[in-house]
Amino acid sequence: MISEVRTVPGGVQIKVKIQPRAAKNELAGWLDGMLKIRLTAPPVDGEANAACVQFLAELFAVPKSAVKIVNGQTSRHKTIEIKGVTAEYVHKLKV
User: Fold this and answer.
1) Cα 66 from Cα 63, distance rounded (Å)
2) From the CA atom positions of the chain, what is the Rg in Å?
3) What is the dihedral of CA 40, 69, 7, 22, to 10 degrees?
C-alpha cells in the first residue's frame, strides 16, 4: 500500500516508520500507509534522525537541507517534508 503523499509548496510530505539498528540502510517497502526505512544508526542522541535525513537526501538526490523532520522527532513514526520532489516521483519508488 502506498502512503498518502501530501503535496506542499515546493515539495511533499510523507509518513515514514524508522527501524533503527538494522543491518544496513535500506527501504523496506510500504507498511500501513507509511514508507518503512531500515537504518543502521541507533535511536540515541538524534543519530537515527540524522541518518534518516541523510538517507532520504541521497535517495531523492536533494541536499540534506531540503529534508526536514516535521513531526515525530522522538518517535519511530515521523512526518518528513522533502523540498524539490513531486508526489509522482515518490510513488515511483522501487521498494
Assistant:
1) 5
2) 12
3) 10
Neighbours of 73 (CB within 10 A): 9
Average pLDDT score, the chain = 93
Backbone φ and ψ of 54, nearest 5° = -60, -45
Residue 74 has pLDDT above 70, yes or no: yes
Query: pTM for this structure?
Result: 0.92
SS (H, E, C) the chain: CCCCCEEECCEEEEEEEEECCCCCCEEEEEECCEEEEECCCCCCCCHHHHHHHHHHHHHHCCCHHHEEEEECCCCCEEEEEEECCCHHHHHCCCC
